[in-house]
Amino acid sequence: MPTRASSHPFGVPLAKPVDEVPAGTLTTLRRKARDCHACPLWRYGTQTVFGEGPATARVMLIGEQPGLHEDREGVPFVGPAGQLLDRALGEAGLDRAMLYLTNTVKHFKYEARGTAKLHKRANAAEQAACRMWLAAELLRVQPRLVVGLGAMAAQTMFGNAFRITRERGAWRPLGERVRGLATWHPSAVLRMPEEARRHQAFAELVADLRAVAEALEGLG
């Protein structure tokens, strides 16, 4: 049976409410999420893309939703955006193997254009339906530092008024002994049309991840 949770209990630092949090280990949650039909997105993706990383990770990175490559492999951040994230993590001094990586939404949503599948943003209802899985991951892992990559994750953590363009990189308390910040999603960096802006945004992403590395060292 699911466990009842408030919108912001320790270990579930989300600004948006979650009525129920599925119980179980990460392995159990991953198995349960495979059969989730809480919203129509299960009809889009070939599989649920659950989070990946140590159950004791002190840092959790939350993205937005899987893309085509993640949908095929069933692992978060393995496509071009994931490759850019790996590069940024390396420059910031963070070891991906020590982090827990997940997404706000666990299924790939797309619009078919001939044989191509073009990424389409999950709507508010789809995000809300999936939030219980993110809450369950937070409750199980209980990270000390939470990083929102992109607007969807940032607003799930900090509320709809949050704007990456003016508030990225600033630490905010998320609960007892938990704090978070938001920064650019790697896919947003890749989509920027001007090369100079892409370089600047990537440098900002690396700087924010360096702040995470420094905070992690400070945890002892």
Automatic annotation (TrEMBL):
CDD domains: UDG-F4_TTUDGA_SPO1dp_like. Belongs to the uracil-DNA glycosylase (UDG) superfamily. Type 4 (UDGa) family. This is Type-4 uracil-DNA glycosylase. The keyword Transit peptide does not apply. InterPro entries: UDG_Type-4/5 (IPR051536), Ura-DNA_glyco_family4 (IPR005273), Uracil-DNA_glycosylase-like (IPR005122), Uracil-DNA_glycosylase-like_sf (IPR036895). It comes from the Bacteria. SUPFAM superfamilies: Uracil-DNA glycosylase-like. NCBIfam families: UDG_fam4 (TIGR00758), UDG_fam_dom (TIGR03914). Keywords: 4Fe-4S, DNA damage, DNA repair, Hydrolase, Iron, Iron-sulfur, Metal-binding. Pfam families: UDG (PF03167). It comes from Fulvimonas yonginensis. Residues 50-210 form the Uracil-DNA glycosylase-like domain.
